[in-house]
Amino acid sequence: MEISKGVPSGWRFFPALLLLVFCAGQAFAGGKGMTLKIMVEQEVTVTNEKGEKETRRVAANKIVPGDEVIYTIHYLNSSSAPAKGVFITIPVAEHTRYRNESARGADTEITFSVDGGKHFAAPDHLAVPVGNGRQRPATAADYTHIKWKFNAPVPPGASGAVSYRAVLE
Amino acid sequence: MKISIFIKAGTALLAGMLLAVGAVSTASAAGTASGTTISNSATVGYQVSGVSQTPVNSNVATFVVDTKIDLTVATTDTAAVNVTPGNTAEVLTFTVTNTGNATQDFNLSAIAVNGGAAAFGGTDNFDATGVNVYVDGNGNGTYDAGTDTATSIDNLAADGSATVFIVAAIPAGQVTGDIASYHLLAEARATDGSALTETTAADTAGSVDIVFADGQGSDTTNDASRDAKHSSQDDYKVLTAALSVSKSSAVVSDPFNGTTNPKRIPGAVVEYTIQIDNAAGGTSATNVTVSDDLGTEIGNGTIAFKTDGYGAGLGIQVTAPNINGGTAQNLTNAGDTDQGDFGATAANTVTVNGITLNAGESATVKFQVTIQ
Question: Could you point out which of A50, B134, B212, B298 has its C-alpha 20 to 30 Å from the C-alpha of B31?
Fold first, then answer.
């Protein structure tokens, strides 16, 4: 936040600072800071005008078990301040299974949880208990949550998207 | 997932974990049930000037699981079913499995192969008669006439399977090696029995569409992939006993030469040998009865049955694998408990019964007459 702008004199500075911080906190909490919009799509193969087959993404309207859907999460920093330490999390929806190596997100560190979102780690650091205190390496089917940790702040007005694919069980 | 679980940051993760665990237990082989709404939403956490902001939830993305129509028909017979000509209820056995994600009805039909390759080798060369398809109503895996009467499957749940029988009669006169091959063709139907129509590309979001996902089965004429039908082929193969009988005679003695080069003159003793052969490659013949009516010859005075050909009161000799350990057995002429008689079962007739012949085995019946 650029709190020094528009503050003309020292004796007004301190109350102005408090006010700005207060307003900023309220504004973001009220939904004018970072916003998220999620969409779920499927890929269909269609024949285009040239008679060529091409893959298009359409809203996920016709999905039966075994089909793949694509979740895309669009983010937007609609505030005037950079958002730092940004992370987006999403559960792997009930009845779906994370498609291995499908998560995408530019300049993000992508980690996964196999314990309902309590702990996140890279795929090769995840294990699930198999009883008697033993563990086995986790697979994509074990993931309960996905997390994108942004490596850089999201500037004011900036937007982007992260995505992953899942298969309907 | 419901978005509401993420409203409070402090409780969001715990709630998410519980639901995720629940998801594992509801998965099944046929897949998520038709009509299920799949919802998901994301959450973003961030800081402004070092102050953590209340996590922000996205909207909720949803889609509705559509109806997957899929089925598998498979015969449970591991080889052609051996059948006997004249039997009226020979059974081919199949299972029909609903591999879709919704309860469906299934229509069933038996499709005769017309001269094509049989399922278990060989070529179809005849049709059975009175062909019917029945569902195993009591679920015991065996066709029960009068009990298993349904001819279509009603309300088979996702992942469920039913045993289905093709029941038919085998015409008398078919011979060992004849094959009648059939496809069982099953078609998924709506639960009211009406035909299903696959939803075309122009569909409505949030509606439950119908997608045919089945493969092609054995009946490539009537069953394509993605047509809500599947099929499996099975064979009736005739396995019967092919009995042949031959009769020969030999002169045992005459009144002048004795047993040395005897001639067929009045007073001579002639032994008849009746041989019964069950051809190799067929099945066992049980309770074979041999009878030789001598009424004409005895009536016109040509011969007389020799009542003591094999001992006092023993005019018949049988040699069969199942009698006396395969060693020749002499039989009384009387209609008693042994396997043969002369004149008791039928006048002037040699009768021997109770012979069992496996494929490739033979038996002989001998008796003697005196030329008059």
Answer: B134
